[in-house]
Amino acid sequence: MLSRVALTAPRRLTVAALSARTYTTSSKEGSVAQSREFGKREKAQEDVYARAHEREQIEKLKKEIEKKQAQLEELEKKSNNKGPEH
Question: Where are the domains of the chain?
Answer without folding.
Answer: 37-86
